[in-house]
Amino acid sequence: MSDYTIPKVWEENQDQKENKFGNQPVAGSRFEQKLPVGEQPLQVYSLNTPNGMKATIMLEELKEAGIKDAKYDLYKIDIGDGDQFGSDFVKINPNSKIPAMVDYSYDEPIRVFESVSILLYLADKFDKFVPNSLAERTELMNWLFWQTGAAPFVGGGFGHFYYYAPYAQEYPIDRYTMETKRQLDLLDRHLADKEYINGDEYTIADIAIWPWYGRLVQGELYGDAATFLNAQEYKNLNAWADKIAQRPAIKRAINIAYKDIK
């Protein structure tokens, strides 16, 4: 039982107010910042997190597919240092989340933020890893929207309370463990008769889902979470995750070097 009493109106405590780079109840930039802009048409500002690596995976897949115009500069946004709250980054993504991208190949540069939005933008721009038929594209969108809505329960829910929270709490760990295992079971059932998320073809649905769920069952997220979740029981999901992990673009994206912004 907790001795916490919910106040009638929530207010920040002093520690929260003084934590410049932690969570705050307001949006917007917190300091002046000048982000570097490289020579390539696509400028990507990110970090090697499950959401952050989606953009680099996609760009490396485009490179692997022979798309010569998908050249990019990749800069590190250190979310632990609060880089995402700088003025230049907030101009690209007012929500202060990675990844974010600017396409300078047009007269008027185009900003793109949110990881799945970046995937869709690049897929449509280069006509790769996205189906053309209405039915197949709709199925693709089903899974992209599913990932967008479902992954926060894994990261902000399970991952936070199981791995990052300052002390263990049974109720939230149980709640988010059950939801995470439900999602793993869903993907495992879906992949029982499919090579990839959208069927026989590798698409941006795989790119969106693998960094979260593939790396989770492979033991790459949240310490011993794969053991705690008994992730090996999801045979179809593990087979898919291992297959995706062998792609050359995936291997490059995981180990890619980021340029400093400071």
UniProtKB/TrEMBL annotation:
GO MF entries: glutathione transferase activity
Record flagged with keyword Transferase: yes
Record keywords: Transferase
Residue stretches making up the GST C-terminal domain: 133-262
The GST N-terminal domain, residue ranges: 40-130
Keyword Cytoplasm in annotation: no
InterPro entries: Glutathione-S-Trfase_C-like, Glutathione-S-Trfase_C_sf, Glutathione_S-Trfase, Glutathione_S-Trfase_N, Thioredoxin-like_sf
EC code(s) of this entry: 2.5.1.18
Gene3D superfamilies registered for this protein in UniProt: 1.20.1050.10, Glutaredoxin (3.40.30.10)
Enzyme class per UniProt: transferase
Protein name from the UniProt record: Glutathione S-transferase
